[in-house]
Amino acid sequence: MLTNLEHLGLAVNDLEAATSLYTALLGQAPYKREHVASEAVDTVFFQVGSSKIELLAATSSESAISRYLEKKPEGIHHVAFEVDDIWAEMARLRTEGFVLLNEEPKRGADNKLVCFVHPKSAGGVLVELCQEIKQ
């Protein structure tokens, strides 16, 4: 079950410029910066109420963010929802006919297990499922 809007992921060309822009817009500094080698991205997170804004910048031309920005302008890349049990939610979505981009969850940014739902099966929106990794 989707329990919360976890974050909006924004694809950006220049992470430092975007960080400055969102720091000014939101009136606060980001709470976290992280390199995610498996996705070839650098991320910056801002807390906004109970949700977050994630800025994503490619660190390689092979990155999904790099390929995305070759076709589209900077802006909303994905919508992420928090789930209590990512495995159960993946099974439920498959049963409902959604196409998942991952066979199993993988480690993502901000201490999360993640899985993506293909935009073609979600009304043109890339959806990310996120479950916090328990320490």
Automatic annotation (TrEMBL):
Q: Where is the VOC domain?
A: 4-132
- Protein keywords: Metal-binding
**One example of a Gene Ontology biological process annotation:** L-methylmalonyl-CoA metabolic process
Kindly list the GO molecular function terms attached to this UniProt entry.
Answer: metal ion binding; methylmalonyl-CoA epimerase activity
Superkingdom, taxonomy of origin:
Bacteria
The record, for SUPFAM superfamilies, names: Glyoxalase/Bleomycin resistance protein/Dihydroxybiphenyl dioxygenase
Family per record: Belongs to the methylmalonyl-CoA epimerase family.
Name the record gives this protein: Methylmalonyl-CoA epimerase
> Whose protein is this, by species?
Hymenobacter mucosus
